[in-house]
Amino acid sequence: MAVNKRRFIKDKVSCSCSMPGVWKAVAHSEGCVVVYHSPKACAHITEEMERNQYFRMLARREYTDPPYTAPLVTSNIGKKESIFGGSQLLKKSLDYVVATYSPKYIVVTDSCVSGVIGDDSVAVCQEAEQEHGVPILHIDCHGFLDGEYYGGFIATGKLLIDRFMVKTEATEEITVKSEHEVNVPRQNHVKSESTNPVSSKLSSVTPYKVTLIGEKDGPSSLDIQQFCALIEDFGLEIYKSFPGYCSIEDMQKIGESDFTVILGGTQKAYAYLKEIADYMSEKLGIPHFASDYPIGWQGTVRWLDAFNTFLQDFKRDKAVQVTASATVASITDASITSSTVAPTTDIPISSNSTYLQTAPAIDIEAVKANVWHRFEEGYEPYKKTLQAASIILCWGVVSPTTDLSWVLEWLYLGGLSLDKVVILDNVPVDQQKSLRKLLDKYYPETPAVLEQADTELPRDALIITTQELAEPFLRQLMLPCLPPIGMAGLVQMYRKLFMLARRRGERGIVLYGW
């Protein structure tokens, strides 16, 4: 019989509320309280979103404790306020928040209801800030009326930059920091470079301070851990993830960052986060590194090369700036101290610029070797079992913008046997051609067959699929919508496939790759 596929619904147009984005932008900011000028049901939507993410992270063993630090309060607009206005209710809510939580700052945003009513929330926030002496930030978003989720997230990030950040000129001596001094926590599955023989080659790299733009499920998530590992391979210090994981004190120090790195997921999310990075560059003069995600080994190599180029260019520009500043300062000092003695042509250069000029170039091959070493070390527990398994890839219809080349590279890097590829009957002809081209690159001997009426999948095989199959006795690994990040992401996928292989008997199961 033909392969029985489960139906799925795909929405081409996103329609979401901006208020959860506002809360998410400061959800882990110590001392912050978020106020929705809305009916209390609006907070329920945010609560459901957060609960879903919390359980998803628990399932992935990516614990965040506590789940959030910023309380969420609603003004509780009712029928009366919907007719006569709710400004007084918002003022009462702000008074309650100050008295109850003693916040360091408050973030206020409007719902669709308050937007339609036309409440002057800005004036209420300004009045309450003057009365209580607590910074109150009003985010100009109104639920579904404008901006969607990321509209609220980005508007909050920009306002935080305006209110709490200042441009800082770093003048202190540069010092090398060891890995245990880095602020972002590391999980057990990310190995310490100090135990790696390759890491000794990286000890002379300049320790710039880097701020991450975005969150990717927080510091304990595998995605963030992978980014931190790659950045720290260059000897850099990760400062904070902005905006979601920064207190006021943290934000006031972000101006000391040398540059930022954008952590976007979808194309839409990346574009919005780049908007924050561009705004920070404009306001604070902090450049940002923007590149495609490190997907698979080839993608990771491209990312490392691009980051290395960016870092070398940044280091050269930094040296020029510091040298120019030292030159101007020396000429000024010489003209002040003596009007009769001509200034020397040998202008002294600050210790920072000397360090920047003499610092050795980064050994990018050592960095790549370090990344590969971690990959081999992480894959080793699953290697023997997976290389002995029978694997079948079921390829269903995917979005035209989805690149699944990482799947075949993932199987190939692990030395896994791909017995057959079944192209499901809903795959367009152009996608079939693309798949066959990829297959010729990695598995030229593996047959690719179109689904027929008599197609059956063996129960003893591990089924890797882009679309969930309805057959109850199959062991299926559902591929993620977004590819895993870096080599650590591939190791995580090996772990899931290993779990699938360890399931014995006639019991089918579906494991999800996200």
UniProtKB/TrEMBL annotation:
GO MF, one example: oxidoreductase activity
InterPro entries: Nase/OxRdtase_comp1, NifE-like
One protein family per Pfam: Oxidored_nitro
Source organism superkingdom: Bacteria
Coiled coil: none
Domain Nitrogenase/oxidoreductase component span(s) in chain numbering: 17-333
Protein name: Nitrogenase/oxidoreductase component 1 domain-containing protein
Organism annotation: Veillonella seminalis ACS-216-V-Col6b
Upper taxonomic lineage: Bacteria, Bacillati, Bacillota, Negativicutes, Veillonellales
